[in-house]
Amino acid sequence: MAANPSVLITGASTGIGATYADRFARRGHDLVLVARDRRRMEALATRLRQESGVAVDIIQADLTEAADLAVVETRLRDDTRIGILINNAGTALGGSFIEQSTDDVARLVALNTTAMLRLASAVAPRFVQAGEGAIINIGSVVGLAPEFAMTVYGATKAFALFLSQGLSVELGPKGVYVQAVLPAATRTEIWEHAGADVNTMTGVMEVDELVDAALAGFDRREPVTIPPLPDVEQWNAFQAARQAMLPNTGQEHAAARYRTAV
Ligand SMILES: NC(=O)C1=CN([C@@H]2O[C@H](COP(=O)(O)OP(=O)(O)OC[C@H]3O[C@@H](n4cnc5c(N)ncnc54)[C@H](OP(=O)(O)O)[C@@H]3O)[C@@H](O)[C@H]2O)C=CC1
Ligand SMILES: CC(=O)[C@H](N)C(=O)O
């Protein structure tokens, strides 16, 4: 990768995305910020230009809208200065599955998965061609835990993890680094969108600490970074159990417990 490639960050107007913007600007990377709220991105861009001297472009886009998404895809395909994509834009929904409207869950899926997928798909061929580049996908520990009963949100985050791991397998040998970041509860505005008061919750990480930890994982080229998990061996054991099961799945016959007498 060029020493300081430009970084395109979705969901960069606030929260985790704005903090990534701050950190990559301090590292001397030019930025492309993507979100809906132009005013907030302008304020962030002005500060980062002054403090870090980097160039900051803004794309105002609603990533649930095909036409807006296409603009970002085109930028990723054509702008060879962009060497890092951070797929961070995402939101959450309050309520149980039957309380959430079909339109709302479809919009959630469009933002948290389809936008992530389309942007990765737009940039990956160029990165592979160059033999370098990085994609950071923001998942969530919720994607590991159906028990949390945030079913659709969690399903989108399971998608983010699987997509990242699959892309690591496919693109890693071609020089492209893919990182899944799995935060747990972090103090941002997402909780207001999910109808929860973050100030009443315990175990909430501050956003600066979350992003700095995620970047430590990025610098180590970890495929999966779970900033709040104290013992990485728990994650390693989880992956080892999955991999141990796989060779047993290619069988000509159904398992004995499913064989019925005819
Ligand atoms: N905070 C937490 O506890 C956790 C967060 N995460 C994940 O981290 C990521 C960032 O979340 P966080 O910073 O907390 O949330 P925030 O709500 O603080 O920020 C979300 C960002 O996404 C942007 N965004 C929302 N909708 C759209 C849209 N339709 N099109 C384009 N941009 C959009 C918002 O900007 P704008 O409104 O201007 O469009 C904003 O910049 C998400 O993927 C989230 O799921 C994962 C685990 C825990
Ligand atoms: C709203 C949430 O559940 C949060 N973003 C998370 O992923 O933990």
UniProtKB/TrEMBL annotation:
It comes from the Bacteria. Pfam families: adh_short (PF00106). GO terms for molecular function: 3-hydroxypropionate dehydrogenase (NADP+) activity. Its EC number is 1.1.1.298, 1.1.1.381. Keywords: Oxidoreductase. SUPFAM superfamilies: NAD(P)-binding Rossmann-fold domains (SSF51735). It catalyses: 3-hydroxypropanoate + NADP(+) = 3-oxopropanoate + NADPH + H(+); L-allo-threonine + NADP(+) = aminoacetone + CO2 + NADPH. The keyword Zinc-finger does not apply. InterPro entries: NAD(P)-bd_dom_sf, Sc_DH/Rdtase_CS, SDR_fam. Belongs to the short-chain dehydrogenases/reductases (SDR) family. NADP-dependent dehydrogenase with broad substrate specificity acting on 3-hydroxy acids. Catalyzes the NADP-dependent oxidation of L-allo-threonine to L-2-amino-3-keto-butyrate, which is spontaneously decarboxylated into aminoacetone. Also acts on D-threonine, L-serine, D-serine, D-3-hydroxyisobutyrate, L-3-hydroxyisobutyrate, D-glycerate and L-glycerate. Able to catalyze the reduction of the malonic semialdehyde to 3-hydroxypropionic acid. PANTHER family: NADP-DEPENDENT 3-HYDROXY ACID DEHYDROGENASE YDFG, VERY-LONG-CHAIN 3-OXOOACYL-COA REDUCTASE. This is NADP-dependent 3-hydroxy acid dehydrogenase YdfG. It comes from Kaistia hirudinis.
